[in-house]
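Appendix B. Raw example, untouched.
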Amino acid sequence: MNPDQFQKNNMYIETPEGGKNFDDDGRDKRTGTWVTASAHIITAVIGSGVLSLAWAIAQMGWVAGPAVLLAFSFITYFTSTLLADCYRSPDPVHGKRNYTYSEVVRAVLGGRKFQLCGLAQYVNLVGVTIGYTITASISIVAVKRSNCFHKHGHQASCAIQNYPFMILFACIQIVLSQIQNFSKLSWLSIVAAVMSFAYSSIGLGLSIAKVAGGGHVRTSLTGVEVGVDVTGPEKVWRTFQAIGDIAFAYAYSNVLIEIQDTLKSSPPENKVMKRASLIGILTTTMFYMLCGILGYAAFGNDAPGNFLTGFGFYEPFWLIDFANICIAIHLIGAYQVFCQPIFGFVEKWSQGKWTNSQFINGEHALNIPFCGTFYVNFFRVVWRTTYVIITALIAMVFPFFNDFLGLIGSLSFWPLTVYFPIEMYIKQSKMKKYSFTWTWLKILSWACLIVSIIAAAGSIQGLSQSLKKYQPFKAQQ
């Protein structure tokens, strides 16, 4: 064993200096760069949320829609820079590493806030994985329906259930979930990031073609019109839900620390993470603005919840098929980005609880031809497989796309993206109470809390309406 590393039951003790192949905490040398971190961020951010942006802007119109989108991008980037400085504490460059978001909160704030953070983070991560299971199945069903219409004509019923495809998605995730940790996911995130650019670009191209082709669509400065498109109460609830959808589209703070923990020690991780966050947010905001604005220009106030489905299932059917396949591939990678922190938390807790259990701590070498040696842990296989199955079952019971995205975004935005980063920054910097900076940071936090509450209310109302019309296990028409 290398003298600079001490490992027992996968629990590490920090050492002053790392060896040639190990970092200062005794773990394997981290190899991540701003490129891999940016890929992780883009994979996490440009997800299924982009598909609902045209609908969200349609609810608020040409003025409020883009303004809300830009506001969320700025807030997300600003608070991500605060959070990046907390990876090491108390000093952001030479302090002790914190491997997860909740560990950062425990190190800086401690006590009850650590427990609340853990609850918020892991509930959000579970919700995102459920949402991605729903979205991936919708995309695969769209491919099947498109091919059905192309083969049998536009008048064919082509009713297809999405449940078999949820099961297929879950089976793929069961295999990929055996990837041991976040540091092994770089290749998957890069593939997923490429896929996200592909389907976003296709959506943009189709929107531009639809706008250029003419045809009258109704748009307005304030979005859907009361008395024409919706009733007064519906306008309010839809606006609230749209805010939640946009919040979901920028959700990645809950995995930021885990991404930062993959970076090399030099240059300092916080500087590299800030650069990666800037690149990631700028890139996604550009795509979001284009997809949202051009999607609204193409469909007007009738913009669908998933703007790719608005182009129909007809011609060019092959291009829309390809876009939907890209979505499914992207979500395969994004699912892993969001579930790895859950896996790590449960496994680390179990290793500490049952240190002598060979079932939980034992690693068994498995030689795979042409792939090398793969280490199998029986607890990891059972636990991760069970998790994937449970999330797939929940997705089958509640297959609601837009309402689900809005609820996840609203519940996670304030605590994980705004509240904890601001509170930790205030604590670490020893900021004077009631100073100018302290005051405006608190105002920002409270304003975002109000936004999260109204977005959650809109999403809950939307879910209740969907449940009234829901017929379980019925094929999509």
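End of appendix B.
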